[in-house]
């Protein structure tokens, strides 16, 4: 067994800022003026063998770049370059403090980009695996040898299994520009005859699957700035101050709306998040995965006291009551019947019923129901945490239904119950070409296609484009992301799956030695954002649209190459070089995409002017976004893309799926947004062995796992598990203790943060920390996915990584 004292020392003492400077200097090369510059945070580190210094221009210049990680923002950065090195990072210098014209200020992550750029974890040379997969044992090879190995493996896989055996894996990315992230791999693989692709994403799989059956298509809620018109704001599992941290994005919008509008704000969340601390008048802690039960309890009060908007439900919705069920629906299958106990289960979903499930007192449910129904307008927006559960599709649809019950859809100050919208100005994209292979797997169950592809069908596993898979995954591309292992579920089992097939080839291209990179057979060093030119398309910034020309600030260090250049080498060896590049360099493509963008958005400057200007901003011409306003004004002239043309609280299409799909025991798909007791939820008998519900939450120090290896951020925001004082007392755990978090899938040792800011019976580990097992397999890195399950959600086959049971003991 591991040594608790040694583990505690590792967990309790992150590398200091000054130690980081010295450590980085030793690992990455020499440090110019590392003393004073390090204390000032300038960190002007030279590359190995002086390769970066070779590009020195002898002066100092400022280059526009961006932080392109997948946080919902694309923050512009101004990089000061001296002697071929980035020595300073500054935020956007344009705009003001006015909502809609705001400066887009990078958060602590973007401001720490130099620590990633010059990190000792940089992948410096092409490498080939020489030890067991996952061991991180590699030997350096030449670029020619590396590209030949990639080509040989590709050809071998396609010749033996066909193109369906080639899989392009999901990744949230750490480069993420228009060209470098958006389309290079899909374009190359399309030129080669296609590839097995995925649908959905780890962030939104369940809510993405739910939208079409309720609204006909993805339908965001009103933008946060629109809440200036609201009397009540309900943020349901929505935490923009941590998940949208850009100082000019939704964090800024949410704070400004609160300051200017002052509407009463209620946050429903198992955890008292930074958003709840800063914005909420009331925090409603509930047990994870019980959102649909809480909505049903609220609905029972509204219906019983005639507080719901019957006129809206009659005109705009299908399935609320028996008079508005679609043809063929069974009697008693309306939402009203379900809530009042007149449906098949004959159980009234009154506040007492909901309280027993959710942990929210019945009196609170009654009071909130009256308040939400009375507030006109009321803005209801949900985040993406509630839908990352084993019953997440129904949780998402339930919050949509709450918005419909009060008739606040399509009006200023209201909302659809979805995630907040933002203005997005029209921009062009790097062309990916059409994928000749139409087969798709869920973004989350790709590991099944490695070891049991012959069992996977459309009805049992959500395969799209065909009835069943015809080949196993035998070649995996993983680019600029850590989803191969660290961000996937059940890390220990995932590692086993990846290690089983002898004929599987994994190619990873990244610029950091991530956990996923350690599983590569062929590992190729990518250029970071400051080492290449690209267009960074906007993130979520309310009513502000923007585009950044992220220019090359320094030359690629060591043997790093931009992914476009790497794939050009692969394409040429495969005989499709001309089709892939069309004779263009990466800068040529930037110019071409920008020219097309200028046709869509004429205000965008030409290339040379944009290169000097760095950023282009454009305010929404229509003000705050109010989805479904046209539908609300005239539903007959503007029908939704549902079978009825209306909002479908009862979905006949989902009922058909429920009748035909083959689901594992315990999984359910329902026509109504019913509460479905989740596996490893508050009612699972497994709680006798593992009594605490484990969730993950987004964290300031990382975007998913990106920036997870930056010592300064680790020091500022240490990895700790949140636990309620009552649960801690039951286990004799004190704040700062190292605890053992365990279930049948793995074990994590982590420092405990004892706090009343989390609901009793629930613990939360910030997601994205890098898996770091000791010799006994105990994860000392604090990766929540050591403990999460590979079991997907029923409809989306999506990421249910917030549904887990664990036990916690003091080490």
Describe the structure.
This protein is of the alpha/beta class and 811 residues long. It has three domains: 214 residues, Rossmann fold (3-Layer(aba) Sandwich); 246 residues, Dimethylsulfoxide Reductase, domain 2 (3-Layer(aba) Sandwich), CATH 3.40.228.10; 126 residues, Beta Barrel (Barwin-like endoglucanases). It contains 27 helices and 26 strands. Strands 5-4-16-15-14-6 form a six-stranded mixed β-sheet, covered by helices on one side. β9, α10 and β10 form a beta-alpha-beta unit. The termini are close together. About 6% of the residues have low confidence.
Descriptors:
811 residues; alpha/beta; Rossmann fold; Dimethylsulfoxide Reductase, domain 2; Barwin-like endoglucanases; 3 domains; six-stranded mixed sheet; six-stranded mixed beta barrel
- Gross CATH architecture of the largest domain: 3-Layer(aba) Sandwich
What is the top-level CATH class of the largest domain?
Alpha Beta
How much of the sequence is in beta strands?
A: 15-25%
Number of strands: 26
Please, what is the CATH homologous superfamily of the largest domain?
Answer: Dimethylsulfoxide Reductase, domain 2
Global morphology: globular
CATH topology of the largest domain: Dimethylsulfoxide Reductase, domain 2
Placed side by side, the strands forming the largest sheet appear as 5-4-16-15-14-6
**How many H/I helices?**
27
SS class: alpha/beta
SSE arrangement:
Blueprint: H1 4-12, H2 17-28, H3 34-40, E1 60-67, E2 75-82, E3 85-91, H4 113-117, E4 127-129, E5 138-140, H5 143-161, E6 166-168, H6 184-191, E7 197-199, H7 205-214, E8 232-236, H8 240-243, H9 250-261, E9 264-268, H10 274-279, E10 282-284, H11 291-304, H12 310-316, E11 317-318, H13 335-340, H14 351-358, H15 362-374, E12 378-382, H16 392-405, E13 440-442, H17 448-451, H18 458-461, E14 475-479, H19 491-499, E15 505-510, E16 522-525, E17 534-537, E18 544-550, H20 563-573, H21 577-581, H22 586-600, H23 607-613, E19 615-619, H24 629-633, E20 647-648, H25 652-660, E21 692-697, H26 711-716, E22 720-723, H27 725-730, E23 738-743, E24 746-754, E25 762-766, E26 805-810
Parallel strand pairs: 6-14, 7-13, 8-9, 8-12, 9-10, 11-20, 14-15, 15-16, 21-25, 22-24
Antiparallel strand pairs: 1-2, 2-3, 4-5, 4-16, 17-18, 18-19, 21-26, 22-25, 23-24, 23-26
């Amino acid at each position: 067994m591991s040594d608790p004292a040694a583990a505690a020392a590792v967990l309790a003492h992150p590398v200091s800022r000054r130690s980081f400077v010295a450590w980085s200097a030793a690992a990455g090369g020499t440090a110019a003026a590392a003393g004073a510059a390090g204390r000032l945070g300038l960190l002007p580190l030279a590359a190995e063998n002086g390769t970066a210094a070779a590009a020195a221009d002898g002066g100092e210049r400022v280059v526009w770049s961006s932080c392109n990680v997948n946080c919902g923002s694309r923050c512009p950065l101004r990089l000061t370059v001296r002697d071929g090195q980035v020595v300073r990072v500054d935020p956007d210098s344009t705009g003001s403090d006015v909502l809609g014209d705001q400066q887009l200020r990078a958060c602590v992550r973007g401001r720490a980009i130099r620590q990633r750029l010059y990190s000792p974890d940089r992948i410096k040379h092409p490498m080939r695996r020489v030890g067991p997969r996952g061991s991180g044992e590699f030997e350096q090879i030449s670029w020619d040898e590396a590209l030949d190995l990639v080509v040989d493996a590709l050809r071998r896989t396609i010749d033996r299994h066909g193109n369906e055996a080639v899989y392009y894996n999901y990744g949230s990315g750490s480069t993420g520009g228009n060209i470098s992230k958006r389309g290079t791999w899909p374009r190359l693989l399309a030129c080669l005859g296609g590839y097995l692709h995925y649908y959905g994403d780890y962030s939104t799989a369940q809510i993405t699957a739910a939208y079409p059956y309720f609204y006909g298509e993805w339908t965001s809620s009103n933008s946060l700035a629109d809440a200036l018109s609201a009397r009540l704001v309900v943020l349901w599992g929505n935490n923009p101050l941590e998940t949208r941290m850009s100082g000019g994005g939704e964090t800024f919008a949410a704070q400004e709306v609160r300051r200017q509008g002052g509407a009463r704000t209620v946050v429903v969340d198992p955890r008292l998040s930074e958003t709840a601390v800063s914005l909420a008048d009331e925090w409603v802690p509930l047990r994870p995965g019980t959102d649909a039960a809480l909505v049903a309890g609220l609905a029972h009060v509204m219906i019983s006291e005639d507080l719901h908007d019957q006129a809206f439900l009659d005109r705009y919705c299908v399935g609320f009551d028996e008079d508005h069920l679609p043809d063929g629906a069974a009697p008693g299958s309306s939402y009203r019947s379900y809530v009042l106990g007149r449906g098949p289960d004959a159980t009234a979903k009154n506040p007492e019923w909901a309280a027993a499930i959710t942990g929210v007192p019945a009196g609170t449910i009654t009071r909130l129901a009256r308040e939400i129904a009375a507030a006109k307008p009321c803005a209801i927006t949900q985040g993406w945490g509630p839908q990352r559960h084993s019953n997440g599709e129904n949780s998402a649809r339930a919050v949509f239904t709450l918005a419909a019950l009060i008739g606040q859809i399509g009006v200023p100050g209201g909302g659809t119950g979805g995630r907040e919208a933002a203005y997005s100005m029209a921009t062009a994209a790097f062309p990916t070409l059409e994928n000749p292979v139409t087969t798709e797997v869920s973004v989350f169950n790709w590991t099944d296609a490695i070891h049991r592809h012959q069992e996977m069908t459309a009805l049992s596993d959500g395969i799209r484009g065909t009835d069943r898979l015809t080949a196993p995954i035998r070649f995996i591309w993983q680019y600029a992301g850590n989803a191969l292992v660290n961000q996937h579920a059940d890390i220990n089992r995932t590692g086993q799956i990846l290690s089983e097939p002898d004929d599987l080839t994994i190619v990873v291209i990244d610029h950091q030695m991530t956990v996923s990179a350690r599983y590569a057979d062929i590992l190729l060093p990518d250029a970071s954002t400051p080492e290449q030119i690209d267009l960074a398309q906007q993130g979520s910034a309310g009513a502000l649209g923007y585009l950044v020309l992220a220019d090359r600030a320094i030359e690629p260090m060591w043997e790093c190459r931009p992914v476009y250049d790497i794939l050009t080498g692969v394409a040429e060896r495969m005989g499709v070089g001309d089709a892939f590049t069309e004779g263009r360099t990466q800068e040529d493509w930037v110019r071409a995409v920008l020219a097309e963008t200028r046709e869509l958005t004429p205000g965008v400057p030409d290339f040379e002017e944009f290169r000097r200007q760095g950023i282009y901003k454009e305010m929404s011409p229509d003000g705050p976004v109010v989805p479904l306003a046209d539908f609300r004004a005239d539903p007959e002239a503007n029908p939704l893309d549902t079978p009825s043309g209306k909002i479908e609280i009862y979905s006949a299409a989902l009922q058909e799926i429920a009748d035909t799909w083959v689901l594992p025991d315990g999984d359910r798909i329902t026509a109504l947004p019913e509460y479905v007791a989740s596996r490893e939820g508050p009612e699972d008998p497994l709680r006798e062995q593992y009594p605490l519900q484990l969730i993950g939450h987004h964290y300031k120090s990382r975007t998913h796992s990106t920036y997870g290896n930056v010592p300064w951020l680790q020091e500022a925001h240490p990895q700790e598990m949140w636990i309620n004082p009552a649960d801690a007392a039951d286990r004799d755990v004190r704040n700062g203790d190292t605890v053992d978090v365990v279930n049948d899938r793995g074990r994590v040792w982590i420092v405990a943060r004892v706090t009343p800011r989390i609901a009793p019976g629930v613990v939360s580990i910030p997601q994205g920390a890098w898996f770091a097992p000791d010799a006994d397999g105990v994860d000392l890195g604090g990766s929540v996915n050591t403990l999460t399950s590979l079991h997907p959600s029923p409809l989306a086959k999506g990421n249910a990584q917030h549904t887990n049971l664990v036990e916690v003991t003091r080490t």
